[in-house]
Every structure is written in C-alpha cells, then in structure tokens.
C-alpha cells in the first residue's frame, strides 16, 4: 500500500491540479473554489465555449488540453469519478460565448447524468448548451451492454478537432453535427498486461496470470471480456487493427489518423514499436496513414497497456487537426513529414 507519492491519497488530485496550474500559469487558471481549469487566453473568434471533463487519473486528459485551440475549460472529478454538476455548471457559465457552450462527454453514466443536470441549469439561465457524446470503444459494443460503447481514446482527437472548428466561428449546431460525425468515424481498442494500482489499497485493481493479456480493457481499470495469451506484437496489433478497420469500413485508399496511446506504465519504446506494427498492417490493407500520434494522451493511472485509435479523416478533418493549439499537452505542430504510408511520431 502507498505506491503513489502523496501527502494523503485524498489530497492527491487537489495538489496535482494546483501544481498543474502553477506549471502552466501562462496557459490556464485553476478555479479551486468551483473546481475547474480554465483557458487563460482563448481565441477571440470563438462563438461557442468548449467544456469537457471526467474523472482524474487519465492525465493529460482533460486538463492538458485546455488552452487556445482546444478546450475552454475542463472539470476534473476525483480519481475515476465523474465531476459534480456544480463544477460543470460553473465552468460552462464562465466560458460560454454568445453562441452558448458545447459539452464533450465520454459515454459513462455518471458523466452523462452530471453534464445533463448542468445543461438543465444553464438552460434556466438562458445559456444555450448542447452535447457531443463520445463512444468509440469497440470492446464495449455488445447487445448485452445497455450503456453502449465507452468513450476512450477518441476523446482527445474530438477535443482537438472541435477546438479548431470552434476557432473558425462555427455555431453550436454546426459543432454538434461535426462532433457527431467525427465520433462515427472513430474507434478505439485497448489491451493491458497489468492492471493499474488502486489508490485506496495500493494493490493491482485486478490480477492477471503471467503470460496473459486483457484484450479490451477500459480506462477505469475495467477488465476485458477476453483474456488472451501473450503473442508476438505483430499478431496482437494485427487483430486490433482488424477490429477497428472493419467497423469503420477502412480499405484501399482510405485516409486515417492513428493514435497509439499509453495507459500510464508502458515505455515509449514499446509504443513506437506498436506504431510500426499498426502502419505495417494498414499498409497491407491499403489504408493511408495521414497522421500518427504516439504518447500518453489518455491514461488509466499506471495501467501497463496501450490503446489504439483509428479515425477516418478527410481533408477538412486533417486541416483542423493540424491547426495550431497551445495547451500543456497537445504537440505544437502535429504535421506530417514523411511518406504518406509511413506514419510519423510527433509527441515527445
């Protein structure tokens, strides 16, 4: 017990948020009283404010993407817990523009409820509010799962692209339409060889036998419905790519953005090796890797695993993805520099 460095485990989130704001004082402000991180220098051309949020433990999501070109505010809950509707309401009211505010919500019951309550309160104050629901995880797609697909790796791509779109002056309805279309063109899948460490107990959230891999984990430490044996990386990634490319209808000539994301305790060396296998498999399918991102974008504390996200991306989507953003964690210039069929890694 006591793996995490903290004064008290209950103080860790608050201390981290205060430290984050100090580290990036030129970019964000931490409203401790109301519990949200706000952009210090938002784009003046924006007509709609963008707000997201969710449980802590997924850093840099969402706080690392607050800043010019991406989110106007992020509401962090406790570890793996939804933010309170009071936080969301206060943040939304603070950053709403003349066109209102757009909530980017991952598909989890608590998040949906609390963002919904905040939206009702905003409506009573005459502030227009709408939602884009992000549900990209193919592992949770089943007729037996009433809540539907979970929101995972696609979240950061949606936050980036909608941030750039909002900077062009798009209205609320246009952003909702774009966001909904983006989500429909994006799917993710995650695997892990070890669970995260539960802060309350200091023990792994679940146990795995040596040589086993959870195929389809969630970002809150949810176990997968499948446990598979360790296999060569190319075989593992090949199955993941097939699971994602199929639902998206990706085939010869399809343009795609690739996100190889660490879940908190996997080395960068391994992530680059994953990317190599992903692009190799996409090349075989004839899918054109237009952009590739590698790094820890959406973590699950110290889970030892990675997620893979594919986004079918047309020229307009790539333009928005390439638009500059100035946040703590989004790379400055995610531009393509190599052959189109060879991905490039951009995040240091």
Task: Characterize the largest beta sheet: strand count, sense, and whether it forms a barrel.
Answer: 6 strands, mixed
Mean model confidence by pLDDT: 93
Secondary-structure element string: HEEEEEHEHEHHEEEHEHEEHE
Uncertain parts: 341-348
Shape: globular
Beta fraction of the residues?
A: 15-25%
How many individual β-strands? 14
Q: Biggest sheet: strands side by side, in what order?
A: 1-2-5-3-6-7
Q: What structural category arises from helix and sheet content?
A: alpha/beta
Q: What proportion of the residues is helical, as a percent range?
A: 25-40%
Radius of gyration: 19 Å
Give the N-terminus to C-terminus distance in angstroms: 32 Å
Number of helices: 8
Summarize this entry quickly.
The chain is an alpha/beta fold. The chain is about 30% helix and about 25% strand. The strands form three sheets. The protein has a six-stranded mixed beta sheet with strand order 1-2-5-3-6-7, with helices on both faces. Strands 10-9-8-13-11-12 form a six-stranded mixed beta sheet.
